[in-house]
Every structure is written in structure tokens, then in C-alpha cells.
Amino acid sequence: MLPKEIIRKIRRIEITTSRLVTDILSGQYESVFKGRGIEFDEVREYQPGDEIRSIDWNVTARMGHPYIKKYVEERQLTVMILLDASGSSYFGTTRRLKNELAAEVSSILAFAAVQNNDRVGLIVFTDRVEKYIPPRKGLQHVLRVVREAIYFKPKGKGTDIAGALEFLDGVITRRAVVFVISDFFAKDFKKPLSIANKKHDVVAVTITDPRETELPKAGLVEVADAEKGSFFLIDTANARQREAYAAKSRRMIEERSRLFGSISVDHIDIRTDKPYIEEFIKFFRMRKRRI
Hints:
By secondary structure, this protein is of the alpha/beta class.
């Protein structure tokens, strides 16, 4: 039985995100993702005006006159959400923790999928895959996805993005739209991400808290590594230490962006201290222009 505050939270997110999807994102989602794939339908005789590139030369040779392959758009998509629930996601210094924002983003994507009659599934991972919900359609199924995104209690602390992608490859055989929601503070995921992007349409959703990029001037601050369980002190009154911290963060973010670019993975960068809906709209517009 879920606690009452979790039920209220699920209901609040359902109302908020479904309204956002209805008012803003639904048309954008459909224009960018729907009909991106095609599947073979039939072979028929060539007619004037048909694309010569569509000619099926094997059938043409057998029958003695031209035949073409006919394709139809795949109108139903499979949307998979890979949600990072590692220790670093339980961090936040503004209105919400990173994992709370990640749950809300998962809800947005799930409701966008169900409104377009698509199937949606969920993989929650840490240093292992902890929860798998196979993709299905329908509002009740989406509410289950939302509930798990909000309420799931992981056992692991570390982050294994590569392992989650390998698990995805084992359970999803057809092409899917895959949203990986993480801070991507992990190692050795470039190759698995590249492989997954060749099979699927992968979008990385990065979540960052402002204190991961810069520190306030607040004297001695104890900083915890949530995944390793270690602690260390930073003297934030020291300008050099603050700048060194900020410079290291900038390098990590720039390297992350370059990595995505090098393997042609689109990404949406959102922060816990800023509205995220504008970033999604910007992403959809970019994809639409490219299409």
C-alpha cells in the first residue's frame, strides 16, 4: 500500500504533466517521432511515377516486368525510459532533488507516449538494473510507470549506464525511442550508447544541479560522494578552490556534450533550478528542422 503523500504526489504529477503534454508537447512529440520508421507492406506492379529506387529487382527478374516494394509508416512507437536512480540522483540544493525532477520528466514522456497511442516501458537502474516494466499502452499502465519512477527505492548506489543499455538490447528487439535520464557521471558508456543509438533513436536527458557546477562563498563545506560514500572538505572562501571546482565541472559538462556529439546522440540539458519545458520545446524544434 502506497503512503498517502506518495499517492497525492503521483496525482499532482499526473495533473501537471498531462496538462503540459496536452497544451504544449503532444503535437511536437508527434511531429518529431511519429512516422519516423517504415516497414515493408507488399510488392506490387510498377506504375508510372513510382520511385525507380523502390524496384524489387528479384521479383522483376522472375516476373519479366517491373515490381516495386511498398512500405508504410510505422505509426505505433515503443518508447523506453531508462531512469538513473543512483546515489548522485538524490541530490538537490534548489526546489527539488535531481531524482524528483527525473521522475517528473519521466512522467511527461510517458503521458506524451500514451496520448499518441504508443507503448511505453521503464528501466530503473543504478549499478544494476533494479526494475523493468515492459512497454504497454494505456493510462493505467502509464500510471504504474509514473508510480515506479516516483516511489521506487533502489538498493544500489553506483551508476552503470552500459549495463542498463545492454539489458535494453536484450529485452527490446524492435526499434524504439529511448530516453536515458541521468546526470551521466559515469564511465565506459560511450560504446554501448553508440551501439544502442544505431539500433534505436536514443535521446540523453542530462540533469544537473547548480551546486554541481559552482559553489557559493560559504566557508568550509563538507561535500559527500553519494555513490562512493566518501566525504571531503572544500574551503569555499578560497576563490582559487571555487574556481578550480567550477573549471572541473565545466570540463566534465563539455566532455559530456562532445561525447554525445561524437556518436550522434541528441541530448536535452535540464537543471533543477530552471524550468525544463523550454528545453524540451527547443529540442523538438531542433529535431523538426533537421527532419
